[in-house]
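Module 6 notes. Inverse folding takes a fixed backbone as the condition and produces residue identities as the prediction. Think of it as a translation problem where the source language is geometry and the target language is the twenty amino acids. Below is one complete input and output pair. Work through it position by position during the lab.
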């Protein structure tokens, strides 16, 4: 009981989060992905935010076109008005043909209207770290107002982006994204007053999880796509996991 109370105190949010909106069932970082996640029962999502050339935030993971966006080009060199006209769904399948790149403000509005909690990964293009953190945080605070702290958690691999988000909207919680646990993890987490450490589940050990949690930080793992691994991580005290397999890991998985 004591361990469960501690977990709740450290992580007051949903424990199972749909990766990039709709996991493996929809084109990532689109409004269609958010709708797909919701239709699967998920009211907690993770998605990536990057700035267009005019510093308007859009949902996007890759700096360069070619994977989810056809052709050649760069997100940071393309105005948002041009980006939102681009097809972001055909690469995934014909059912999503014509699905457009989403503005961050539209994703915020949709999630707010549906009561969906958001892990917003600040994903700056190279050289845009501070601006991306600042603009994303300010827009979030402006649009969500007093409810922002309970509806959003920022995360990023970029310390510069997290510091900028902290300065722009100090009341919205933050998590540090890492692949491996760095030697100075305590200093990095403390410097941005982070709530949580977000780490590749394949690099995490039970001892690491216990060490981070004993220091007062929640542990969030990405990207967990099997039931046995999810159960193992939960047994280690991991607070939350992000998954592509929203068809396999049901939203109430940790309650079953």
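Target side of the pair, the amino acids:
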């Amino acid at each position: 009981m004591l361990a469960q109370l501690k977990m709740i105190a450290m992580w007051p949010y949903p424990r199972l989060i749909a990766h990039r909106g709709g996991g493996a069932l929809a084109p990532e970082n689109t409004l269609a992905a958010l709708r797909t996640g919701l239709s699967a029962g998920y009211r907690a999502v993770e998605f990536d935010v990057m700035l267009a050339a005019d510093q308007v935030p859009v949902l996007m993971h890759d700096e360069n076109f070619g994977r989810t966006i056809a052709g050649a080009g760069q997100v940071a060199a393309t105005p948002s008005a041009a980006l939102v006209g681009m097809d972001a769904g055909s690469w995934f399948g014909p059912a999503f043909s014509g699905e457009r790149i989403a503005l961050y403000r539209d994703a915020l509005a949709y999630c707010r209207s549906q009561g969906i909690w958001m892990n917003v990964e600040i994903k700056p293009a190279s050289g845009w770290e501070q601006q991306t953190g600042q603009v994303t945080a300010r827009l979030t605070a402006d649009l969500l107002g007093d409810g922002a702290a309970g509806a959003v958690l920022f995360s990023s691999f970029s310390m510069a982006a997290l510091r900028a988000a902290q300065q722009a909207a100090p009341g919205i919680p933050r998590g540090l994204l890492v692949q491996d646990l760095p030697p100075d993890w305590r200093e990095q987490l403390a410097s941005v007053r982070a709530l949580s450490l977000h780490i590749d589940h394949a690099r995490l050990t039970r001892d690491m999880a216990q060490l981070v949690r004993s220091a007062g930080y929640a542990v969030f793992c990405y990207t967990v796509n099997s039931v046995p691994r999810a159960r193992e991580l939960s047994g280690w005290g991991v607070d939350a996991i992000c998954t592509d397999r929203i068809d396999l890991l049901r939203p109430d998985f940790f309650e079953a």
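Reference fact for the lab report: Residues 1-8 have pLDDT under 50 and may be disordered.
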